[in-house]
Each structure stands twice: as structure tokens, then as C-alpha cells.
Predict the 3D structure of the following.
Amino acid sequence: MSRTRELAEGFRDEIVALRRALHQVPEFDLELPKSQQLILDALAGLPLEITLGKELSSVTAVLRGGGGPGPVVLLRGDMDALPVTERTDVPYVSQHPGMMHACGHDLHVAGLVGAAKVLSALQAELPGDVVFMFQPGEETSGGAPIMIREGVLNAAGRRADAAYGLHVGSASQPLGMWSSKPGSFMAAADQLHVRVVGAGTHGSTPYRGKDPIPVLCEIVGALQTMITRQFDVFDPVVLTVGRIAGGTKENIIPDDAFFDATVRTFSAESRAKVQLVSAQLVESMAAAHGLKAEVEYVVGYPVTVNNAAEYEFARDTIVDLFGADRFRERANPRCGAEDFSYILEEIPGVYLNLSACRSANPDAAADNHSPLADFDDSILPDGAALLAELAVRRLNRVG
């Protein structure tokens, strides 16, 4: 067993206890004071230079290696929870009504604290520095860009050379399985908001007005045809209309009608194209019926792109530490989005998945974001060990 795994195993009880404490006080968005304090308490006594965020409840901690100035590695863990009412029966269930760590970020924090403890024990041997990035706001407005603006990439006094992060899952893969892929790994996530403007009238005399509802329905269907006919099937686009609204009563034609959609893409080219052609389609279809359309396309998180060389490095490290049977290369990217993408736009690195599925039948288990999502925190030492090992090896790599 590697030194990092041995050390991480020695911190098992501490990081599991931290995870369960975090799980009981889930907090939302950018202001996470209780989570921040738990992190600071857990890091107390370690040889770290700690900076707190100004615009958000972030924690940035720098470990100076004993080998003098050298490369810098950034390790990231997100902190925020979701507005979900927990329905698990664990003894450490959420004590904040309507809030839950349903995406496993409590495990991310605890694993990153574990990595900080492991690397602090190895400080004298490190030929460079490590930045630990504890980030709020992944589920909402994007805490990563704020932390970048506040200087996390240069927290060590020079720019990070590589960045690594992981995300746990409560379903789909057996407990302890690692997975990732090179290149586009997770989608860009944008929003399409449409208002079709007509003219209201009595439902019995539709010819006296301009009914926006059938036009809106035509547009929803046409957008799906647009996807299949204007985009390469091997560079997929997913457009899902999740909300439609219009009207107040069955015999009243309203003045306007609305829909909101999420748009997922996996390349910059398709992302730019769908923004342009979706607006063109919506506006032209409304005009063909004598109506107007107002279109707002909101750009969200970019595509999460794993650097090919860093992916191979991380994969080989996982195989060395845990065995080839503990890693699966994903054939396709995931349609979820992740604001670690902003880090990977600036710094070469890799994002990894680790299964924390408690069920013996992963395909039937409740997935992330479910009120029944149940994460097995026995894998925390593995997550801490891998983050630490990636830092150690990357700092010692020449070139």
C-alpha cells in the first residue's frame, strides 16, 4: 500500500466524522458559514496559509513544500448543498429543513481535508506547493469564477501548473469505482427563455386575436427537429423544455406564452451554433404566424474538458494505487455540468468520478440530487489518498 493510502487510512475516523457533521448542516449557494467553520476547525494545526473569500464563504489553503519553490498543484472540493428535503434514515440526517447534501459535496470537502492532512504529513518531501480550494456555489451561480477572480489560481504566489478534482456518485457504478474520460467529460449548460407575444381575445373567436399558445407548441417541436437536422449526431446537443406557461382560463386566449429550456452541448462550436440558430428559428416561426418572439439565451457553465496528458497521468495513478479493476474509462461524456470547467479552461487538469454507491444494485439506487440519495463514506480515505498522490506525483514530475 502506498504511503498516501496508509496515511489517509489513519485519518479515516476524522474525515468520516467531518463528513457527517457537514451532512447535518447543509447550506445553499455562496454563503456557507457553518460549513466554512467546520472546514477551518478541521484544518486547525496544519501548516497551511489560509485565506477566506470576500464575496463568498470560500476557504483557500496553501501548503508550502519543504523542497523550495517548484510547481504548484491545485486540488478542489465544492461545499454547497441543495434545496432538497432529505428522506434518508441515516443517523446524521440533515438538521436544516428543506436542505440536503444530495450531491455528495460533504464527501468532497471531507476528502479534500483528508488530502490536506496527508500532504501536511509529507510536507518536508514536497518539491512545490499545493493549493486546497474549498468552493461554495457549484450548484447555483458558479463559485469557481468568483474564486478565480479573487486569486485562487495564484494563491501560492505563482500560477498553478495543474488542477484536480473529483465528484462522488450515489448510483450507476459499484462502490469504489473510479471513472473519467479524456477531452469533453461534462456538458456546457445554458438556458433558453422564450416569450411569444400575441394578442388576447375570447376563446370562442380566436380569429379576432393572435393566439400565442399553438405557435409556442410548434416552436417546441421544431426545436427538436432543428437538433436532429442541423447538428452532427456525434457532437450531440440536448435541448429540453422544462417549463411552459400561458393563459389564465380555458376560454381566454392570452396575450403571451412562455417556455424555458436547458441546452446541453459538448463543444464550443455546437454551443455557439445552437445559440444562434435557436433564436433564428423561434423568431422566424413566430413571425410566420404574425406574432413576435422575445428570446433570451443565458450562457452557463462551459464544457468540462479533461486535458489528455493529465487524464492519462490520473488514470495511471489510480491503477497503481487501487488496481486496474477499479477504473473504467467512460465511452461518452456526461450531460451534467460542472463549474470546475472554469478551472480547466485556465489550468490543465482532470475531473474524476468516484462511486460512493451504498446499494448492491447500483442501477436501482437513488441518484445524485434525489432526496433518497445515500452516499457510502467508507470510500473517503480513497478519495483523500488519490488527491494527495496526484499532488505528490505531479510535483515530482519533470517537465
Summary: The chain has a mean pLDDT of 97. Residues 268-288 form the longest helix (21 residues). The two ends are 27 Å apart (CA to CA). DSSP finds ten helices and 16 strands in the chain.
